[in-house]
Structures are given as C-alpha cells and as structure tokens.
Design goal:
Helix content is about 45%, strand content about 15%. By secondary structure, it is an alpha/beta fold. Strands 3-2-1-4-5-6 form a six-stranded parallel beta sheet, with helices on both faces.
C-alpha cells in the first residue's frame, strides 16, 4: 500500500504519452498511469469508446509530418512530456516468400518508425528537463523465432535495438529507456491468431 502511494505521488500531474491506447496493452497502460494520477495522452488510429479522463488523440504514428504537427500542438498547451510508452504495433502474418513488400514496409512503418517519430518529438523536451522515461513494448518474438512472423519479429528486434541505443544516448540526461518483451497476452492481436 505504501509503495502504491509512493508511485502515485511520483506520477502526480506528470504527462505520459501512450501509443496504441485504444485497446490491449496500450489501453491497460494508459489506465494504469491514470490510476497513478498522471495526465495521460493516448494515441491511436481510432478510439472505439470516448474516455472522460484520457486525452484521446487520433493519429497514424507512422506519418512523420502528422506526428510532428500534433505533438508540437500538444506541447504548446503542456510543454512537458515525462514519459513515452511505445505500445502501438501491428501484426502481418505470412511466410517470407508470401509476404508482400507492402506488408513488410507497413509493419516497420508502425512498429519501428512510429516509435522513432514519437521519440524525436519527446526527447528534446526530456533533455531540456534533464529527466524522463521511454518504454517500448517489444515482444519475445524478438528472441524466439516463430513461423509466419518474419515481419513482426524483425520489426520488434529493430524496436528493441532502437530503444537500447536511445538508452545509451540519453543516459547523461537522466532519461531512462527500457524495453518490455511480453509473451502471448490476451489482446485482440493475440486472439486474431486463433481461428478456432
């Protein structure tokens, strides 16, 4: 109970950006930070239900210009971002010889470039404050190859290394960068793999 209280104080009135906030791990992460009394800004391509306490921002994070414009607009209102949580991701199934170049590219656009685009907007603000946290949700598919998941596994490996490099570059500014690599989790993405 004391730990929960301390954590709540730690995030009180802090600003947290969460991508993929419409469902699954992203939605759960946004709710967790809300319970810790942070100001939560959730990004996703769409939101199925309005939320009275989470600021929902409709955004395709793979669109570099759109990310820049929306983030700059947000920072004009609240010139701070204390944490960025990169959760948004897509899964394109198919063996290497069956995947289209469009599927491959789209996977990297969302899973890697999306995080890169948000990092580019958040990092200067964190550096100016000399503090911050970046967490990227990767996957154990990075370490455990799976059939028909070439694009997903490769993109998550890229996301992992992008975040680790960020950790090295930003350590001197007091910015922590971490990777979480969950296994199978009961989310809509996971259930899409099961046809029966």
């Amino acid at each position: 109970m004391a730990t929960q209280s301390a954590n709540s104080q730690q995030w009180l009135n802090k600003t947290v950006w969460v991508t993929g906030a419409n469902q699954g791990i992203g939605a759960a992460t946004a709710e967790m930070f809300l319970q810790l009394r942070a100001n939560v800004i959730g990004f996703d391509q769409q939101f199925d239900h309005p939320h009275s306490q989470i600021k929902q921002v409709t955004l395709d994070i793979s669109n570099e210009q759109a990310v820049k414009e929306i983030c700059q607009s947000l920072l004009e209102t609240d010139n701070n971002v204390d944490a960025l949580v990169n959760v948004a991701g897509i899964l394109q199934m198919g063996k290497i010889t069956e995947l289209s170049s469009k599927q491959w590219q789209r996977t990297f656009d969302v899973n890697v470039s999306g995080a890169f685009n948000l990092m580019q907007q958040a990092i200067p603000v964190m550096k100016a404050a000399n503090t911050g946290a970046i967490v990227s949700v990767s996957s154990n598919a990075t370490h455990m190859p799976r059939m028909s998941m070439a694009a997903y596994s490769a993109s998550k490996a890229a996301l992992t290394n992008l975040t680790m490099v960020a950790g090295i570059e930003l350590a001197e500014y007091g910015i922590r960068c971490n990777v979480v690599s969950p296994g199978s989790t009961q989310t809509p993405m996971q259930w899409s793999l099961w046809q029966k």
